[in-house]
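Structure in, sequence out. Go:
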């Protein structure tokens, strides 16, 4: 018998794990019927919309009480088991209280919800090209409650029947296919000058299989759509047909490569059917590219949403196309990992995100024509994980998530990229076939249910016959980055050494690794480091002093060489290269693409750790990095170079190094004619030129069409680059507001409006900076209208641009007001919007005075003081400040180390 629950409070928005566990033990939710009325959505002043919800559920204890989660505008009526309850006493700002439950229950709620401008809930966007309205939902981890009353936790799965009322001309979609599409009676329709525009329909969608509320989805608007079909099946099973569709805004249709996306989708379904031997379980497969999206994508079954940045309306590099393919495969993996089998609570978020991150890269590698998937993974995703895992807020892959605020911040580099890296190591450790078979059993056993770490380990142990608890304890339940190094002892033997500290406990941590150790020697015929020999080795965590011998690997003397302790990038570890290897890779290129990406990742870690001065890294990038064939690596090195200048370079060196890099990038523009490398270089030069002004005349020439006078040909100056150059010029006061307005008027697109806002806020004027700062803190524009998520980010970013020391000083004077506003911002804004402000406005790019200790820096002391004075601040807000403080200190320490 379930213990009586305490009567809940209705004003608490932040659901805790303990509350969810109690509610989960009490309830079994059967079905939701939800109708969302969007007939008013096209109106210019639309703010809210009506919703009707009917929920059927069982309670394990008659007479108990519980609550629904709801962050809507209002509740008009509440009926529980046929009895109308008083709204005033049962409905609060965040919850709807349900007392005196029966064994079988029905709750009927008429409510009103708000359209979102933050990308949380039902987001409403007006296309500046044609004034058309587009809507879509985004819920993870807990924003379906912004649309309809719901038991908002992943283990209370149910079946959902949605219906939408909306304009007849619109695409109206949900997770399941439409089963009826009927005109409303004339009396119900909205009247107006254009009768066709106001004709309404009610679309009812088929009941879904059992699923969690956070992956339900709604879509409405005049989306351009292209239909397709998949035919295939699982090994030895029957053929299955899946209706396919891809959608985007109508104004982007001319740029939409729909057939390429449909073909990728077919390839992915073939791959996952073969890999998982469980047929795609969700009927249709719609993929929608939506505006003002907070994420890369979201795995709503049957209705996957993506950022419309993947509609390439300006020139895109091959790396961008590959990233899009990776995202598509990542979300498709979720149809099984996450949607079919779901975690009970957000502690096990990794059970879907780590798997999807790993499977996404694996699918791109094995099911598409790209050959750089694991290079991109090593250079990008793992770099993200290494940064996150060295913060004081790092956590085990299996995290301790006490509440929804913590869950929202746990979509981080640990949960995604570290987890994926560890799964790649697991596939090497246990064997690819064993990993595949374990996944198959996992899906069959837990289909449409919830599972935990123990459930996955159980199938692994069945398949491998090995006890996986020690492996899981070492890799999944401890935090911190392991460090691997390879060295030669006095007799010339190769040794691998492992070190690791769990930042949470301070204890030494050793993990098992199955790796390959490589020896790369200089080939004098082309001055390139080439793989000479490699050996597989098991790094035993119980080895004495953490040292494992590699007995069959020899290193010839007398030639520059690289010892690489993670050949093929099989494991998750920061690499500590010996001095001879560092000297070699800073002088000569590495021939093998994956080894090369692994080495550059190691060099970047050394910069961040203060072991390699930023100036040496920048020199190596300019001499060796810009010539790398794989554009994904080049783009990463350019981003890291800009960060190295901003954060890790002593002030007295920065101006000269900035000018050198700007000159090198300008030279690259002339050296290349078209192509991805030239375009990536132009983007980097534009970003660098926001702060450094030596190439502004070149940017002006590129804008006015006289590029060939500077020896530059083949570079398409499209909308993206035009605005990037204008933003740099605006930061130095070389374009006026009138010029920016004219550029926007000439081509008014969503991209242009965001870029214009950034450029306007970047101008070097005290009043402009003050206005931008005030708008960012308020979350509204100068007319008092709420800023959308993308416009808020543009305002914040524009404010932080300082093209000269005087402007930097103006920005710096806002620091006290920033700290004073933190708690208020967090309380007023949604967590997503507040995070943009808190992290974006933190003035973390600071200089360390000679002889000053990093901890003595005024900003470091001010941040530390705020943390001490606000010990009762929300944990999620404190986490952001702790992380910013740590990143600040890391940069200052690197500056100190660079001075020697």
């Amino acid at each position: 018998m379930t213990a009586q629950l305490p009567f809940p409070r209705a004003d608490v928005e932040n659901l805790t794990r303990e509350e969810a566990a109690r509610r989960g033990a009490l309830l079994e939710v059967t079905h939701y019927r939800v109708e969302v009325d969007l007939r008013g959505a096209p109106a210019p002043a639309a703010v809210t919309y009506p919703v009707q919800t009917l929920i059927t559920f069982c309670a394990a204890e008659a007479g108990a009480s519980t609550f629904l989660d709801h962050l809507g505008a209002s509740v008009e009526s509440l009926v529980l088991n046929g009895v109308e309850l008083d709204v005033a006493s049962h409905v609060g700002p965040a919850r709807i209280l349900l007392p005196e439950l029966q064994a079988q229950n029905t709750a009927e709620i008429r409510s009103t919800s708000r359209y979102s401008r933050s990308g949380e809930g039902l987001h409403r966007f007006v296309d500046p090209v044609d004034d058309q309205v587009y809507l879509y939902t985004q819920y993870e981890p807990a924003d379906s409650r912004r649309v309809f009353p719901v038991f908002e936790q992943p283990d209370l799965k149910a079946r959902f029947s949605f219906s939408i009322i909306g304009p007849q001309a619109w695409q109206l979609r949900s997770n399941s296919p439409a089963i009826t599409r009927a005109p409303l009676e004339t009396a119900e329709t909205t009247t107006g000058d254009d009768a066709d525009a106001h004709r309404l329909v009610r679309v009812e969608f088929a009941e879904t299989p059992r699923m969690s509320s956070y992956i339900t989805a709604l879509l409405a608007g005049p989306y351009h759509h292209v239909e397709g079909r998949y035919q295939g099946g699982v090994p030895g099973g029957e053929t299955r047909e899946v209706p396919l569709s891809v959608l985007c805004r109508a104004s982007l249709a001319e740029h939409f490569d729909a057939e390429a996306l449909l073909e990728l989708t077919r390839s992915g379904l073939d791959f996952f059917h073969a890999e998982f031997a469980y047929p795609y379980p969700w009927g249709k497969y719609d993929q929608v590219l939506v505006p003002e999206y907070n994420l890369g994508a979201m795995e709503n079954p049957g209705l996957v949403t993506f950022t419309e940045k993947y509609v390439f309306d300006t020139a895109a590099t091959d790396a961008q196309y590959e990233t899009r393919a990776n995202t598509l495969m990542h979300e498709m993996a979720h149809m099984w990992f996450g949607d079919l089998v779901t975690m009970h609570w957000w502690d096990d978020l990794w059970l879907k995100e780590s798997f999807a991150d790993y499977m996404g890269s694996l699918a791109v590698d094995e099911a598409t024509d790209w050959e750089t998937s694991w290079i991109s993974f090593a250079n990008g995703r793992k770099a993200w994980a290494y940064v996150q895992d060295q913060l004081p807020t790092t956590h085990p892959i299996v995290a301790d998530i006490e509440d929804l605020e913590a869950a929202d911040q746990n979509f981080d580099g640990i949960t995604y990229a570290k987890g994926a890296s560890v799964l790649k190591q697991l596939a090497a450790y246990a064997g690819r076939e064993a990993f595949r078979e374990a996944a198959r059993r996992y899906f069959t056993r837990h289909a449409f249910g919830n599972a935990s770490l123990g459930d996955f380990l159980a199938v692994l142990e069945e398949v491998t016959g090995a006890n996986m608890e020690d492996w899981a304890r070492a890799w999944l339940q401890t935090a911190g980055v392991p460090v691997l190094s390879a060295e030669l002892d006095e007799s010339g033997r190769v040794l691998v050494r492992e070190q690791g500290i769990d930042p949470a406990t301070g204890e030494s941590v050793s993990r098992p690794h199955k790796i390959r150790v490589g020896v790369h020697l200089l080939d004098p015929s082309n001055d390139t480091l080439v793989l000479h020999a490699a050996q597989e080795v098991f790094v035993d965590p119980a080895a004495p002093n953490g040292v494992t011998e590699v007995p069959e690997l020899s290193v010839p003397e007398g030639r520059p060489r690289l010892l690489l302790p993670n050949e093929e990038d099989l494991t998750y570890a920061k690499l500590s290269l010996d001095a001879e290897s560092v000297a070699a890779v800073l002088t000569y290129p590495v021939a093998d693409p994956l080894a090369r990406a692994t080495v550059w990742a190691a060099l970047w870690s050394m910069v961040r750790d203060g072991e390699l001065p930023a100036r040496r890294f920048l020199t190596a990038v300019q001499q060796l990095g810009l010539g790398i064939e794989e554009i994904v690596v080049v783009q990463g090195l350019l981003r890291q170079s800009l960060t190295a200048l901003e954060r890790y370079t002593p002030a007295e060196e920065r101006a000269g190094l900035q000018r050198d890099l700007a000159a090198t990038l300008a030279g690259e523009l002339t050296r290349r004619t078209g192509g991805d490398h030239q375009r990536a270089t132009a983007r980097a030069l534009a970003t660098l030129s926001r702060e450094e002004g030596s190439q502004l005349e070149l940017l002006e020439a590129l804008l006015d069409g006289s590029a060939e006078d500077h020896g530059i040909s083949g570079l398409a100056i499209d909308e993206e680059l035009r605005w990037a150059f204008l933003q740099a010029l605006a930061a130095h006061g070389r374009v006026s507001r009138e010029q920016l307005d004219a550029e926007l008027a000439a081509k008014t697109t969503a991209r242009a409006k965001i870029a214009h806002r950034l450029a306007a806020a970047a101008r070097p004027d005290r009043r402009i900076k003050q206005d931008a700062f005030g708008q960012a803190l308020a979350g509204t524009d100068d007319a008092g209208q709420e800023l959308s998520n993308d416009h808020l980010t543009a305002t914040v970013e524009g404010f932080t641009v300082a093209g000269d020391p005087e402007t930097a000083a103006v920005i710096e004077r806002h620091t006290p007001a920033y700290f004073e506003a933190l708690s208020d911002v967090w309380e007023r804004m949604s967590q997503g919007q507040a995070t943009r402000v808190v992290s974006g406005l933190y003035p973390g790019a600071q200089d360390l005075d000679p002889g000053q200790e990093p901890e003595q820096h005024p900003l470091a002391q001010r941040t530390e003081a705020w943390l001490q004075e606000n010990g009762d601040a929300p944990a999620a807000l404190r986490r952001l400040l702790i992380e910013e403080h740590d990143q600040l200190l890391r940069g200052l320490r690197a500056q100190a180390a660079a001075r020697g």
